[in-house]
Automatic annotation (TrEMBL), chain A:
Belongs to the cation transport ATPase (P-type) (TC 3.A.3) family. Type IB subfamily. It is found in: Cell membrane. This is Heavy metal translocating P-type ATPase metal-binding domain-containing protein. InterPro entries: ATPase-cat-bd, ATPase_P-typ_cyto_dom_N, ATPase_P-typ_P_site, ATPase_P-typ_TM_dom_sf, ATPase_P-typ_transduc_dom_A_sf, ATPase_P-type_domA, HAD-like_sf, HAD_sf.
UniProtKB/TrEMBL annotation, chain B:
Pfam families: FixS. The keyword Oxidoreductase does not apply. It comes from Imperialibacter roseus. InterPro entries: Cyt_oxidase_maturation_cbb3 (IPR004714). The chain crosses the membrane at residues 6-25. This is Cbb3-type cytochrome oxidase assembly protein CcoS. Keywords: Membrane, Transmembrane, Transmembrane helix.
Length: 808, 56
């Protein structure tokens, strides 16, 4: 029989009332509202029953999509005391307090709902959100409710906490953030600066002759106010300068410390012995601006954690087989010889021997190859694989810390870069600057010595004071800090500001394919034909039993809609043909055209096509294609024009033709790359003097990301994804990549402009200082003005350039 | 004009009180979450049962 396949597009787009996602299938209608999946509907009903519908009043479609529900045992391990003990902050036997990190917190509705947790669960005493850190602190009565229940409740309303081994490290992190000290130093410096300036006003305007006692008093008071600035606010500069000198190396903090010391000593001398006012105002002002710059530079993205190791991807607990029953044990307690039960979709935490008859392991986490590998009894399974299908038993061969994956992560490239290897621009300049200043100061001292020793000392200290590289020290943090904020707004998050300097010097780009250039969620599935919900659910259930990559993609696609599987009978998988099974008395066939259509009348089609027949009647087809990122071709063309590019992929070379279209002809392409090979490649490029930037998804190419000068991870979901990288690029901003690289170069040029201006100030100031004619008044004017003008100049320039490049 | 010394001393003491207040506020974590409280103050305390919203 002949069938025409209706290609009817979805009439109009509907969006889910709860999460705002587009309904890909027939939307679920309930309470006069559309929902994209059962999960969203359930949450809505739960909120409605508890009178919590204000949730939808505060923001439009505030909910989080619940398309990937976790299995009911997912949080079973929280019942184990060993594990839950590590998570809770405090307990007195009745009340327990615990803090969760919830990446999903994103708007005021979230805040409202999470703080109303006691309404959903009466045993919760209080719950409070820290919006900036995306943390939720819950206090509950532990007699009535378990930690696991709380977590499951949070997960059921779409705010699943991220529980990783990192939480154990939280013990140390409980102390106050390093930023607090900086704030305190800044506060003290600002306070002293303001007061000293105020008290110095009479000095600027000139005292009357008989007000000598007042001058004395103001001088002493300024000295007192300067003490906390020098000994508290400036201590980090002294410490850092001291450390660098011990390493026989001059960094920017050396001249700064020298200037501060010279200012303080000379001012104290003048106040106590010389009857002059000194330069305390310049001193406090200088520190105040320096600390503002430092604070600006330290603005990191608190909610993105870049420093993660392999353990954060491992489950917290595993099921150990003890005397015929399973027990949850923490991953860190796994010993050689343990027998573990690995359930569907669980990660194998350590290398081991398969005891069960067969397993189908997805190693995409390690190799990037997304098709599962079949293993039979007594085969060795490597850590990092994910079991697909029925549960398997594994006899552990090595401890977690010695597994294949761990060894990869422990590769030498993960060792911290030492300071020597990479010298920031500013430190190179600082070295010459310091030398020049010392030479000039000594020269002035020797020159004036014959005339009068006092004048010589004055000239010597004046040179040190004026040449203090305040403007120089401010140019870098403000320019890079501004640039980092701009990039962050546009969707590129950097670990720190030095990354911008490194980005400016890149000349080779290395791309990973899967998840970087193509979507991680494999394939774009188009449904040809019309199906009822029941039929789709049946297809969803049937495909779940198959390990064929195409069935898995189809299953994944449908899992956005369904969570419940229907019972499947007579499941048959026929090699090179397809699968057949019965659901609700109907026979489903999914597979090749010859398998599903009696008289194959098919023209060849693009991509991978799967046909479907129900009860022998052909119903339609699904076409599955690998989706590349939008605008990929233009982006690569742009980049290839000014950088050398390479493609590395862990996949088989099936999609070479697709990639050939995108990249220029001469681009080297390597397929079937293991993580080590990727790492080696980057190392080779670096050895030949190239500056490499690697773009990956951060899982199987983590080693290469770390090895590269700049490792950038592309992520669909910035909050919940934290690889070991220097930068995280929001996938939506992928098209801006060439702009970001250009912007980094511009930022470096802006720094040079600021350096030029700052040198001009220094030359003017130094010429006065060398003559020994530097009056406190001149210093008081020149120093703050130079600092402020540099800050303003860098800020304005960065914003101008960002506007020109259309970054904002 | 000697009185000015007393006046200046008093003003510096007052200023120090403000500095201490700032440091205390920071230590007690008032700068940890700068967004939450601004939204929290807008929430209603009493819960409306929304019977009327289901009908459009």
């Amino acid at each position: 029989m002949q069938t025409t396949l209706p290609k009817k597009p979805v009439a109009e787009k509907t969006y889910c009332y709860h999460c705002g996602d587009e309904c890909l299938f027939e939307p679920i209608l309930a309470h006069e509202k559309h929902f994209c999946c059962e999960g969203c509907k359930t949450v809505y009903e739960l909120l409605q029953d508890n009178g919590l519908c204000d949730y939808y009043e505060l923001e439009k479609t505030p909910g989080l999509s619940l398309k990937q529900p976790k299995s009911s045992e997912a949080y079973e391990f929280l019942d184990e005391e060993v594990i839950s003990k590590k998570l809770i902050d405090f307990t007195d036997g009745k009340t327990t307090k615990v803090t969760f990190y919830i990446p999903g917190i994103h708007c005021s509705s979230c805040l409202w709902l999470l703080e109303n947790l006691p309404r959903l669960e009466s045993s919760v005493i209080s719950s409070r959100v820290n919006f900036v850190k995306k943390e939720l602190t819950v206090a509950f009565q532990q007699d009535n409710v378990t930690l696991r229940k709380i977590v499951e409740l949070l997960a059921s309303i779409g705010y699943a906490p991220l529980i990783t081994l990192e939480d154990e490290a939280k013990e140390q992190k409980k102390t106050s953030s390093p930023n607090r000290k900086l704030y305190a130093q800044l506060g003290v410096a600002g306070f002293c600066f303001g007061n000293i300036m105020l008290l110095s006003f009479p000095e600027y305007l000139g005292f009357d002759g008989d007000e000598e006692y007042l001058k004395q008093f103001v001088g002493y008071l300024n000295f007192l106010l300067a003490l906390p600035v020098v000994f508290y606010s400036a201590q980090d500069y002294f410490v850092s300068a001291f450390k660098s000198l011990r390493k026989k190396f001059v960094n920017i903090d050396v001249p700064i410390s020298l200037g501060i010391a010279a200012l303080f000593l000379r001012s104290s001398y003048e106040v106590f012995l010389g009857g002059e006012a000194g330069y305390f105002d310049s001193l406090a002002g200088l520190l105040f601006f320096l600390l503002i710059g430092k604070w600006f530079q330290s603005k990191s993205y608190d909610h993105l954690s870049f420093e993660r190791n392999y353990t954060s991807y491992f489950p917290l607990a595993v099921l150990k087989w003890v005397d015929g029953a399973t027990r949850n044990i923490p991953v860190s307690d796994i010993k050689k010889g343990d027998i573990l039960l690995i359930r569907n979709k669980e990660l194998i935490p350590a290398d081991g021997i398969l005891i069960s008859p067969s397993a189908s392991v997805d190693y995409s986490f390690v190799t990037g190859e997304s098709d599962p590998v079949n293993r039979t009894q007594n085969d060795l399974l490597y850590a990092g694989g994910r079991q697909q299908g029925a549960s398997i038993k594994v006899l552990i061969e090595k401890d977690v810390s010695q597994s294949y994956l761990t060894q990869l992560w422990n590769h030498s490239s993960f060792a911290k870069e030492n300071e020597k290897q990479y010298q920031q621009l500013i430190n190179v300049i600082a070295r010459y600057f310091t030398m020049a200043v010392m030479v000039l100061a000594t020269g002035a001292f020797i020159f004036w010595w014959q005339q009068s020793p006092t004048l010589a000392v004055n000239a010597f200290t004046a040179v040190l004071i004026v040449a203090c590289p305040c403007a120089l020290a401010l140019a870098t943090p403000f320019t890079l800090g501004n640039a980092m904020v701009m990039m962050g707004k546009a969707g590129l998050y950097l670990k720190n500001t030095h990354i911008i300097e490194k980005m400016a010097t890149i000349n080779r780009l290395v791309f990973d394919k899967t998840g970087t250039l193509t979507y991680a969620k494999d394939g774009d599935v188009t449904l040809g034909g019309r199906y009822s919900d029941d039929e789709l659910q049946a297809i969803f259930s049937v495909t779940s039993h198959s390990t064929h990559p195409l069935s898995r993609k189809l299953h994944e696609h449908l899992s956005q809609r369904f969570a419940q599987k229907l019972p499947v009978d007579k499941f048959k998988e026929i090699e090179n043909k397809g699968i057949e099974a019965a659901v609700n008395g109907k026979v489903y066939r999914i597979g090749s055209p010859s398998f599903c259509i009696e008289e194959a009348r098919v023209s060849t089609t693009e991509g991978n096509v799967v046909y479907l027949a129900i009860d022998g009647i052909t119903r339609g087809l699904f076409s599955i294609r690998t989706k590349t990122r939008g605008g990929l071709k233009q982006v690569i063309q742009k980049l290839a024009a000014s950088f050398k590019t390479t493609l590395l992929s862990g996949d088989r070379s099936t999609e070479q033709s697709l990639m050939k279209e995108v990249f220029p002809d001469e681009t080297p392409m390597y397929f079937n790359q293991t993580p080590e090979m990727k790492l080696e490649y980057v190392a080779t490029c670096k050895a030949s003097g190239e500056k490499v930037m690697m773009l990956g998804d951060g899982l199987n190419d983590a080693g290469a990301l770390q090895q590269a000068d700049v490792g950038m991870a592309i992520s669909e979901d910035v909050a919940s994804f934290s690889p070991a990288s220097d930068a995280i690029l929001d996938a939506r901003s992928f098209e801006l990549l060439p702009t970001f690289l250009l912007f980094a170069r511009r930022a470096r040029q802006i720094i040079f402009v600021c350096f030029g201006v700052s040198f001009a100030y220094n030359i003017v100031g130094l010429s006065f200082a060398m003559t020994g004619m530097l009056t406190p008044l001149l210093a008081a004017i020149l120093m703050p003005v130079s600092s402020i003008s540099i800050v303003a100049l860098s800020t304005v320039l960065v914003r101008l350039v960002a506007g020109r490049l259309k970054l904002t | 004009m000697k009185i000015i010394i007393l006046l200046i001393s008093i003003s510096v003491v007052v200023a120090i009180v403000f500095l201490v207040a700032f440091l205390w506020a920071m230590k007690s974590g008032q700068y940890e979450d700068t967004y939450g409280p601004s939204v929290r103050m807008l929430f209603d305390d009493n819960i409306k049962k929304d019977e009327n919203k289901t009908e459009k």
